[in-house]
């Protein structure tokens, strides 16, 4: 008769009981483990670097690994170059090092090091004539207010990552990000203070410019007659929509102090058809009806699954057959470098917030079906780092 006592096997930490019917990895996982063991051998790496067909690949992987190791240093070079005014000082063209020292207030020897570091990551370029100009990355940052806002905002995230192990294991929860985004997942969305609304709305509006064109190029809102943007902030996305579809009737729904800021913004900068702004909780209040398209732009990843399901059920209750829900936000995945970057960055960002997670398109579609929607389609954007679109139908 076979024994039913679990077999004890040796592991890194000594003997560990193993269940009799322990699940086994499939061939893909075993193949990846074999590859990892091979790559871990110094002799194999030296051989790969000498072979003509594999040497360029090996060097590229080596550079990728060092970029990963040095990533935090590079982000601090970026932050310092923006914060000190180095990038802005070059906005109008070539500048001498002496003039840069005057504009930034840096001693010459320290400025030399900053410029050298900034050049290494593509922010600036130094010519043989001694003049400094913007590099490609610096030129983009100089002209993109949303990107600048995010870089400055990252000072909070960097402080939360001072002890990343504590952040990941859950022992550090009183984060800077949680305090800034105190409304998210708190159960008190309708009680958010106006000053808190101003802080997060301004950041969301500034960073929205990087996202709107991606969404509008991937999905044709012109097929609809009316659109309501749920969690629409100060209306940055609707403003972008109005520039392309002037005849589209539009509405916005967000927390009362946020909706008021949107209303004031539209009054100061009127669109062709001024959107109607509704204030309320998208979890607890009945959502406005009568729109053949509903959008959720960068909303779901702020919340845990239970809250997302509750929100989607509330949206479904306000929709009729033939109408469309468009969900757009960065989504997890491994199909491209952009998806992998989105998975890592936004996954850590929302963890620091204390609410939400970066989901795959299929996970979002599954939650939508659980909420009562019938089917969904996935529409990729040019840059998966910015967003992927899931189109959902009642």
Automatic annotation (TrEMBL):
PROSITE patterns: SAM_OMT_II (PS51683). Residues 1-26 are annotated as: Disordered. The keyword S-adenosyl-L-methionine applies. Keywords: Methyltransferase, S-adenosyl-L-methionine, Transferase. It is an enzyme of class 2 (transferase). Residues 68-127 form the O-methyltransferase dimerisation domain. GO terms for biological process: methylation. Its EC number is 2.1.1.-. GO terms for molecular function: O-methyltransferase activity; protein dimerization activity. The keyword Transferase applies. Residues 190-374 form the O-methyltransferase C-terminal domain. InterPro entries: COMT-like (IPR016461), COMT_C (IPR001077), COMT_dimerisation (IPR012967), SAM-dependent_MTases_sf (IPR029063), WH-like_DNA-bd_sf (IPR036388), WH_DNA-bd_sf (IPR036390). Pfam families: Dimerisation, Methyltransf_2. PANTHER family: O-METHYLTRANSFERASE CICE (PTHR43712:SF2), PUTATIVE (AFU_ORTHOLOGUE AFUA_4G14580)-RELATED (PTHR43712). This is O-methyltransferase. It comes from Hoeflea phototrophica (strain DSM 17068 / NCIMB 14078 / DFL-43). The lineage of its organism: Bacteria, Pseudomonadati, Pseudomonadota, Alphaproteobacteria, Hyphomicrobiales.
